[in-house]
Structure formats: C-alpha cells, structure tokens
C-alpha cells in the first residue's frame, strides 16, 4: 500500500534532574556540595532513507518517543544523555506542525537528518549554586521537558518531471515506454491511484526522474477526486509534462481539457504554472486526432505541441530531449508551508501567548495559570525551607509578585497554583 501522509505524535526526552549531594570524606573538611548535573534528553530525528518509498512504517507507529536523560550522580558526575530516536522516511518527505502547518523538516538528500523535536536540557546539580553567602545549597534544578507535539509527515514525490493530465490520457503508458517502471495500465479511469516513478535516459546520455501522477479532474484544487493528494506531488517537479488525449477517445474535448488542467494548476497555491510545461498530443493514431490538433493549435498558437503515440513508442525522443533541456535551465522550486507567504498570500503572525495570567476567583482569592507555570511548578519539589525560598525567588523573577499586586492582591490574600493554596505576604 502506498502511504504518503501520516499524523504522528513526537515526544523528545526530558532532561535529567540535578541532585543534591555533599562530599563526605574523613580527611576533607567542609567538603561542600557534590551533586552532579542531569543528562540532556534525547532528540527525535528524521532521516531520509533512499531505500524507502512509502510512509507505511509510520502508519503503525503513531507515537515516537526519545529516551530521557539520567539524573545527576554524586561526585559531580553528569547523568547520561538520553538516546536519540531516528525515524527513517523516504526522500522527499516533509514534516509539519499539525497546528500551524509550519515546516520543520524537508528531507531531499540521501541520509539527510533533521532534528524535529529537541530534548530537554538537564538540570544543574547543587554544586553550581555554591556561593560565599550559601556554601551548602540544598537545592538543585529539575530537568526541562522535551518538546512534544503532533506533526504531519507528508511524502511529496521527488521527481524532476511530472506527468499531468486527465485520467486515461496515456500517462502510465508513457512512463512504461520510456523507463523500466511498470505501472498498472488499464482501460478505465483512475487506474493510477498512487505516484509511480521511473528513471529516464535520453539517447544523448542525459537522465532524469519522471513521475506518473494520478489523473486530475475539474475541481481538484478544491479537493475533488484525488484533489490535494495529487497536486502536492507536483510541487517538487521542475518541469510539467502535460499529456492530452488528442483523439478524444474518452469523449472529452482536448482543447477544453488543456484549459481545465491549467486552471486547476493555477488555482493551487504552490505556483505550479511558473514551471515550464511541455504539451504532448497523445493518441495521434485515432481518427479525430488530426482535426483536434488543428483546433488546438488555432486556439493556442504560441504553445509548442509534441505529437506522440505512446502505445507504439512513436514520437517520444523529442519529448525527452526537450524535458532534459528545460531541466538544465530550471532551478528547483522551494516547498512552502501552509502559510503560503511565498505565493503572495497575506498572513499575520499571532501574538505570543502570555507566560501566565492572574484570575480573581473570589474576593481575596487569586489563581495563577499559564504554560510557564505548568513547566516551573512541582509541589513534590517543595520539601525544605530552601526549596520554598528558591520557589519564591523564581516567582518573583517571573514577575508574578508584581502581577498579583496589579491585580489587587494584598497581604494575607490566598494565591492558588495548580490546586495548591499559598498566602501572599508582603515583605
């Protein structure tokens, strides 16, 4: 089965905690703090594997996790770093944030690697906090959490030239005739439901990758038929080879077919019409082909047309030479994220969410919420007087004290954090 899009959850490893430890040796007076740092959490890394052609493996592994870093050890020993998790995907794969559509990885080179989720930093041991005023600190830092989010993994076929056209115009037959690829060929619409790729070599020794892409229909840019599932595979192609059934075997008008396909390519946001296009008039052995070709040239006098009959391998060499010539002068087109800024679409950046907010629950009771509070507060770490002192200092550094005062909090009022209550005391 050809799988070209999967939604997965990636979770990098958390950083290990620093520890509180003191040096205890018979002949070392006042040994001091001796706690080591926690190890860094493992990263989630995607790697392009030339031997893979589908995302089938990810379909059955929707949760990808890296290992956490180890906690620090005594004698100032650093905890082991977490092991990275490497996910192998086919060439041409992109990874996007599921929420924003922002591209975080675009893998186009063999064995190219990209960190998708970064592991958390390890916490510092108590020996880092030694000072002239506090020679025996009894606290250490916790490790930071690793990144976690849902992402969309998409395979966009890595080909130089893409075959486009209505179903049953002869695209699969063309690929079969010019390469060693053997796509399914049938006398019914949508025989090809997944991209097929083959290597083509011209008689003068040049070669390129040709992709037979599933057939377009009217409305594909709005999602009809195979819709975006098809159009996204054209994005990496530098040249478009537009195949037209000039004999009208399926009862369609070739002149109208050309207009409809180009309208769909133009409606898609990825600037597909900026790519050079080769028009191939196929099935020229049919009775109506000559007449339709004359009408086509009269309607589009500036469009060069190559006449072929792919079923008997006639007229293919000039098409391949023309494609190789265009590839030599056409640079790659960048893959854009869902914001579409390179396509001229106006977009606005959302304001950065607040680290925390103060909510007045009832008279003299205030609640503190926010993503930074979620990361910083852990009731299990408040065990000693020094822990509470460090916690209050962190709250003051984050600006929570001033924010409470601005919200109307006074001496003796109650402050709630994660369901736990504290008294607000003006010092």
Automatic annotation (TrEMBL):
This is GTPase Obg. It comes from the Bacteria. Transmembrane segments: none annotated. Residues 159-328 form the OBG-type G domain. Pfam families: DUF1967 (PF09269), GTP1_OBG (PF01018), MMR_HSR1 (PF01926). Residues 348-426 form the OCT domain. It comes from Absicoccus intestinalis. Gene3D superfamilies: GTP-binding protein OBG, C-terminal domain (3.30.300.350), GTP1/OBG domain (2.70.210.12), P-loop containing nucleotide triphosphate hydrolases (3.40.50.300). The gene is obgE. Its EC number is 3.6.5.-. Residues 117-143 are annotated as: Disordered. Keywords: Cytoplasm, GTP-binding, Hydrolase, Magnesium, Metal-binding, Nucleotide-binding. Mg(2+) binds at residues 172, 192. It is an enzyme of class 3 (hydrolase). Belongs to the TRAFAC class OBG-HflX-like GTPase superfamily. OBG GTPase family. It is found in: Cytoplasm. An essential GTPase which binds GTP, GDP and possibly (p)ppGpp with moderate affinity, with high nucleotide exchange rates and a fairly low GTP hydrolysis rate. Plays a role in control of the cell cycle, stress response, ribosome biogenesis and in those bacteria that undergo differentiation, in morphogenesis control. Its cofactor is Mg(2+). GTP binds at residues 165-172, 190-194, 212-215, 282-285, 309-311. Residues 1-158 form the Obg domain.
């Amino acid at each position: 089965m050809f799988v070209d899009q999967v939604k997965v959850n990636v979770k990098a490893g958390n950083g290990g905690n620093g520890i509180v430890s003191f040096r205890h040796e018979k002949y070392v007076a006042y040994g001091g703090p001796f706690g080591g740092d926690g190890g860094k959490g493992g990263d989630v890394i995607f790697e392009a594997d030339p031997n893979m052609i589908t995302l089938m493996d990810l379909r059955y592994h929707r949760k990808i996790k890296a290992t956490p870093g180890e906690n620090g050890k005594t004698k100032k020993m650093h905890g082991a770093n977490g092991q990275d998790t490497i996910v192998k995907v086919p060439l041409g794969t992109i990874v996007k944030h599921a929420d924003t559509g922002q591209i975080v990885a675009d893998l186009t080179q063999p064995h190219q690697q990209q960190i998708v989720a970064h592991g958390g930093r390890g916490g510092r041991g108590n020996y880092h906090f030694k000072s002239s005023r506090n020679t025996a600190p009894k606290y250490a830092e916790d490790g930071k959490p690793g990144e976690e989010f849902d992402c969309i993994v998409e395979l966009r076929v890595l080909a130089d030239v893409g075959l486009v056209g209505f179903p049953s115009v002869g695209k699969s037959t063309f690929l079969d005739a010019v390469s060693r690829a053997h796509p399914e060929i049938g006398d019914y619409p949508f025989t090809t439901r997944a991209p097929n790729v083959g290597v083509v070599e011209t008689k003068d020794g040049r070669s390129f990758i040709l992709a037979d892409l599933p057939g377009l229909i009217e409305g594909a840019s709005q999602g009809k038929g195979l819709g975006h599932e098809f159009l996204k595979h054209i994005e990496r192609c530098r040249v478009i080879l537009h195949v037209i059934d000039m004999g009208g075997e399926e009862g369609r008008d070739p002149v109208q077919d050309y207009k409809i396909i180009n309208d769909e390519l133009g409606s898609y946001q990825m600037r597909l019409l900026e790519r050079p296009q080769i028009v191939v008039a196929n099935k020229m052995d049919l009775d109506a082909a000559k007449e339709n070709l004359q009408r086509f040239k009269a309607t589009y006098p500036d469009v060069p047309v190559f006449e072929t009959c792919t079923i008997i391998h006639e007229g293919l060499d000039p098409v391949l030479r023309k494609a190789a010539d265009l590839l030599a002068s056409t640079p790659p087109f960048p893959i854009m994220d869902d914001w579409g800024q390179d396509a001229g679409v106006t977009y606005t950046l959302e304001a950065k969410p607040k680290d925390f907010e103060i909510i007045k629950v009832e008279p003299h009771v205030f609640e503190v919420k926010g993503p930074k509070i979620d990361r910083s507060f852990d009731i299990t770490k408040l065990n000693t007087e020094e822990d509470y002192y460090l916690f209050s200092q962190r709250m003051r550094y984050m600006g929570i004290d001033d924010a409470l005062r601005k919200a109307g909090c006074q001496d003796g009022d109650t402050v709630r954090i994660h369901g736990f209550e504290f008294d607000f005391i003006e010092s």
